[in-house]
Amino acid sequence: MDSYALLLGSMLSAGTVLAIAALGLLINEKAGIVNLGAEGLMLCAAIAGFAVTVKTGSSWLGFLAGMAVGGFLSMLFGFLVIWLNTNQYATGLALSLFGVGFSAFAGKDYVQAKLPESLKFSIPGLGDLPVVGPALFQHHPIVYFAVFLTFALIWFLFRTRTGLVLRSVGESPESAHALGYPVRRIRLLAVIAGGALCGLAGAYLSVVYTGLWVENMVAGKGWIALALTTFATWRPARVLLGAYLFGGVTMLGFHLQSVGVDVPSQFLNMMPYVATIVVLALISRNPAFIRVNMPASIGKPFYPGS
């Protein structure tokens, strides 16, 4: 039973990285912007969060640094695609490539660096329960923040006027503009917020999940987070469930090895990406369902004068 509790706990921790990043990208896409630069954002935030934590000894300052870097780079991305109308896909890919190179350069002095000893977290009264305690109630607060963020985003998008405006900008920016809403500023704020969440995911990855810095350590998680938004058909609750699913796929192979099943490491590395391809292929069999849930103006530029 302890091994299954460990697997469940590992699944939640691994899924948290994907969930926070995917929810950030969901905010972007609800406003009509596709950001393919999530991988680069997460890498830059990962080294920023790790470096600040090493220098200050505070993981929370590291999280703030990661969010600041993610938000700043997303602001630059937003300015290019929203005001200068550069191609969203090409600009996102450029941001991703920039993040890979810059993070490797900035992080070369931190490869052997060690973080200060982290505190052990446990919810009083629940963390000591057998099996479910270690599995569910002994995680870092960011794990629980991902769950809170999911429900907060559901409330924001579907229960508030601001969320309705954001969704209207993603559906028909021309109509929103005709009603007097500042479409460009709304999209920019959505992009910055989404980038900050990608930054938090990157900082969590380096500061908590792995506790070290390695070049290109995000290892495709930004792309999986991007695929998750389509997998979840742009619904926050499905994003969270999908993140845990992919987290479980990632950790399952390691669990099999721990119980004596001989699994090649190459197979373990490819499992999350195979799962991504399979899920997207299954979803693509029903394109009408995707079109109903997909923001109508996603990826399309907006020209206020048109």
Automatic annotation (TrEMBL):
<protein>
    <submittedName>
        <fullName>ABC transporter permease</fullName>
    </submittedName>
</protein>
<feature type="transmembrane region" description="Helical">
    <location>
        <begin position="60"/>
        <end position="82"/>
    </location>
</feature>
<feature type="transmembrane region" description="Helical">
    <location>
        <begin position="218"/>
        <end position="234"/>
    </location>
</feature>
<feature type="transmembrane region" description="Helical">
    <location>
        <begin position="267"/>
        <end position="284"/>
    </location>
</feature>
<feature type="transmembrane region" description="Helical">
    <location>
        <begin position="188"/>
        <end position="212"/>
    </location>
</feature>
<keyword id="KW-0472">Membrane</keyword>
<keyword id="KW-1003">Cell membrane</keyword>
<feature type="transmembrane region" description="Helical">
    <location>
        <begin position="241"/>
        <end position="261"/>
    </location>
</feature>
<dbReference type="InterPro" id="IPR001851">
    <property type="entry name" value="ABC_transp_permease"/>
</dbReference>
<keyword id="KW-1133">Transmembrane helix</keyword>
<dbReference type="Pfam" id="PF02653">
    <property type="entry name" value="BPD_transp_2"/>
</dbReference>
<feature type="transmembrane region" description="Helical">
    <location>
        <begin position="142"/>
        <end position="158"/>
    </location>
</feature>
<keyword id="KW-0812">Transmembrane</keyword>
<feature type="transmembrane region" description="Helical">
    <location>
        <begin position="33"/>
        <end position="54"/>
    </location>
</feature>
<feature type="transmembrane region" description="Helical">
    <location>
        <begin position="89"/>
        <end position="107"/>
    </location>
</feature>
<feature type="transmembrane region" description="Helical">
    <location>
        <begin position="6"/>
        <end position="26"/>
    </location>
</feature>
